[in-house]
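Handout, section 3.2

Students often ask what a structure token actually looks like in practice. Rather than define it abstractly, here is a full record for Coproporphyrinogen-III oxidase. The first block is the sequence as you would receive it.
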Amino acid sequence: MNDQKYSNLWNDELIRKHDLAGPRYTSYPTAPQFDESFGRNEWLRAAEKSNSASAPLSLYFHIPFCDTVCYYCACNKIITANKKLAIPYVEALKKEIDMQAIYIDRSRPVDQLHWGGGTPTYLTDEQMHDLMAHTRSAFNLLGNDSGEYSIEIHPKGVSPERLTKLRALGFNRLSMGVQDFDENVQVAVNRFNSEEEVLALVQAARALDFKSISLDLIYGLPLQTSASFAKTLERVLALKPDRLSVFNYAHLPDLFKTQKQIDSSQLPEPQEKLTILRQSIDTLLQAGYVYVGMDHFALPEDELAKAQQAKNLHRNFQGYATHGNCEMFSFGVSSISAFGDTFFQNHKTIDAYYASLGEDELPLWRGIALSEDDKIRQTVIRELICHFELPFSKIESQYPIAFSKYFAAELASLRSLEADGLLSIGDNSIDVNESGRLLIRRICMAFDKYLSASARDQLNAKAKPKYSRII
């Protein structure tokens, strides 16, 4: 997007027409397609294939614990003030590290590492040091600060002094969940962090030479208005984070039990929610941020924006990423791995996770091996969602297909979106127009074979996947 107001391209009627429920495409195929029959044998075959490829590694660690509950949260989490519960979990993570690392080529460098949650900083300083040291003993972590090693933090529970310890552990990127500075909204969702706390952490992170600081906001929360959210955004921009995410709150209380504590009558009306988003995009563009896509913005000099400009941006289970050549091995309850053309997910409950490790088994719940068609569609969706354009030659150079013939039905289905001005279909490419970037998930859905099958079979299906709406 250029520096013109995005509202010049905004069309409420068009947005409502295409604001369907659909995947966020942090993977393709998406998690509902995973098969519970996948286990150790499939994992070993995929690990062997991954070693043969010799690609660098991305490691993900899921820390599920939180001191208090945020009512909007849809993450896999355990709410407890009993810090002792983290003791066996860290030991379980160390055991899982050992069980995986023995099959992974030790020479492969770890270019990317991420701790997510939950709240990773729920762990004590000693536990974090122990876990990182164990990881370093099992994998080839980079010692020159050149990797992308990130951690999610809750500003309320981290002091500037603690950031010094995180930096010493090797973390060089921070993601902070702010959500909203409005006090009434914070009470409504039980999430508290003051502007002063966030400012102190941002200043400390810069002094410690953290390479990227990302702040997360959520629009669509109870008691939010376009005016109140504009004030929060103004206060956030004064901090000038390197990256900023403005996520859509999806109210799905039947799926996420904690959301039942939100008073749905206090949620902003759909039109107000659209106004919040439109004003936020305008404000961020005018402030000099690049619209990366899918809720994400970055300063032009940030690596995320540079990766998109260089056409090598990637998307994985943590969202947009700059290390698309990595194979991801993940640890902890519910975590998802992607290596050897296979996805694996660990057990979602901590009891099942512990039980598997107690029997000296990898805590695998389900997975899927990508077919050739899956890989083709995965590449198509990734190119569209990351770069908003798709030269057919890029797919044809990687796979033995004639794009227009292989995707004849999909191209035909996109004609209605072309007529609405969301994209342009040429003889040799698909180009997403600026008005279509906001609805990129809708465009990608045309190439989702499983989603199409689900739609055809939904009358006979016992249960169908639940997705949030695009906007």
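Discussion prompt for tutorial groups: The chain has a mean pLDDT of 92. How would you have guessed this from the sequence alone?
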